[in-house]
Amino acid sequence: MKIQCVRADHVYQKMIAAPVEKRNDIYRYELMKPFEKKLEIYRIPLKAKQENGYDVIMANTMLGYVAAEKIDESQKENVSLLSQDSFWQTCQEAIEDGLGRFEEAKNTLPVQEYLYTIMLADPQSPYTILSDGYSGDGGIPGYIWGAINPNSFTLDRMPAALAHECNHNVRFQFVEWRDDITLAEMMVSEGLAENYATSIYGKEKLGPWVSKVDMETLNDYIKPLIKDAMDVSGMDNLTAYLYGDEIAEMNNYFPVGLPFCAGYACGYYMIEHYLKKTGKTIVEATILPSEEILEEIADFWEE
């Protein structure tokens, strides 16, 4: 297995030192081009055909990464925090471990080459604020991104977030993604990923996408709403259930009355219930079809 890193901090340093008019292209071709195949799957071009058109710079800004145009002297401290070799080594080890546990369990991963980076998250973005300053993206096999507003808390949390993304990366090598994926399937995937992260790093590293929901709210309010929407499909319809109303409204989708990442939290406890009931390991469960998991946990909704 080959796991390589694109050091975003090195690219940021180069951008800060470069003339303003050169910064977008440095970002585009030195930081993003190595991930071009991932971007193509998301239909994000490296460079728009027309000026100010949709491309990777616009897309990443919308997704909550620090905009290329804002990588200047004002970001020197953040880039410095991101430039610790020990941090990148820890991230490398987290990904090696996160992927390696599956091969140790005799699962041959179809993908054997991986590329990752950790980029600066925009501290003003609602995505960054809601996720307590860190997050990840690992749904495309072979590619993992982290986003971080660097400080002692978020730097410490990134390995757990990367483990979460490693789980997605493995699962979608065995379970094919569908554009009409249901809320139930998404909850299974997110629940598996966060249970995987806590199995390695402990529940004290439970992500804010779960920890912000208390059990009373989950059982009395969230579960009844989600139970009746498990068959909802398509990201435009299920976003509010999975990510909550705030994120749904930011994407011009209809709210349904749910808090931040309600579906993530529900999925986490749903999979925790499954693992306890069946005795399966999280590694075993990760590559199972959603239908097989969901058949076992009808009683989860009765708790």
Provide structural commentary.
The protein is of the alpha/beta class. It folds into 2 domains: 1-174, no CATH class; 180-303, no CATH class. 56% of the residues lie in helices and 7% in strands. The protein contains 16 helices and 4 strands. Strands 1-2-4-3 form a 4-stranded mixed sheet. Strand 3 and strand 4 form a beta hairpin. The N and C termini lie far apart (42 Å). 39% of the residues are buried. The model has no long low-confidence stretch (mean pLDDT 95). Pfam families: DUF2268. This is DUF2268 domain-containing protein. Residues 87-295 form the DUF2268 domain. InterPro entries: DUF2268.
Largest sheet: 4 strands, mixed
What is Rg? Answer: 19 Å
Number of strands: 4
> Which sequence of SSEs, written as H and E, runs from N to C?
EHHHHHHEHEEHHHHHHHHH
Distance from first to last alpha carbon: 42 Å
Measured by DSSP, the beta-strand proportion falls in 5-15%
Oligomeric state of the chains present here: single chain
| Total number of domains | 2
Helix proportion: 55-70%
- Residue windows where pLDDT falls under 50 for at least 5 positions: none
Please tally the helical runs, counting DSSP H or I stretches of 4 or more residues: 16
Q: Which structural class is indicated by helix and strand composition?
A: alpha/beta
